[in-house]
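Hi V.,

You were right to ask for the full record rather than a summary. Here it is.
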Amino acid sequence: MRKTPLLLALALASAGCKTVVANAAAGAVSGSGGTYASDGDPELIRAASPFGLKTMEGLLQTVPENADLLRGLTSGFTQYAWAFPLQDADQAELAGRSAEAKAQRERARKLFLRARDYGLRGLQLRHPGLPDRLREARDLDAALAAAGKEDVPLLYWTAGAWALAIANGKGDMQLVAELPVPVAMMRRGLALDEAFDGGAFHEFFVTWDGSRSEVEGGGVAKARAHLDRALELSGGKKLGVLVNWAETVLVQKQDRAEFVRTLERVLAFDVDSAPQYRLANVLAQRRARALLDHADDLFA
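Predicted structure:
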């Protein structure tokens, strides 16, 4: 019995040490995304990413309120789901493999929701009660007024995951009804830091405004303004926004000549000239090639 206090003290010290180590590891692991972004081999990243994501999830069980881990998991799962299952779904759809496309799109949707939930946990840490106020969707601007510039990365990745989950889960009407929330989060992020990640918020609004009519508050002119600003902020080094413009606006306008010119511009870009965006640009070029190969299916 006299040994009990000593054993308890050792156990508590061990637990504390474990938490310290986990927090230290969390910072290192969650900050490793840059090495993935600069890699030019998508298949290598496809194979490596799940291990990193599961490692972070394991660490989060030890330190469940680690903000770095929550932010890293939000961005990591969003980027993985977009880069691989969603691109696989799009490729299968273009090739007419509808069953494969449906399965990959459903997998992407689940991963996006997983990312969104980690993001909401991160926002809850910084602003207790904010996720509940967002879900109530009564006065989104008022709810988001508490968010500051330091919240921008979490706003972007949470909103991006949420919007992509909705786009790939249109049969879930309850989920679709939540669309105003990620859009409001994107607007707040744009107001706080429009230059974030080379104009990432503007990239979102190229697709959002380009897919809506002027009557609905969008339109080609608004989408074009966001495109120009995104290209200005990235120095023309991020190709995804051009692919989005071609696929969203130019197909809708049935402007095949400009569609071809835009995607050929994407393919002519030297991805090694912008190593910080290499992986995303390689994937954008892959998408551009697929769209050009199937242009006859997109234009009358």
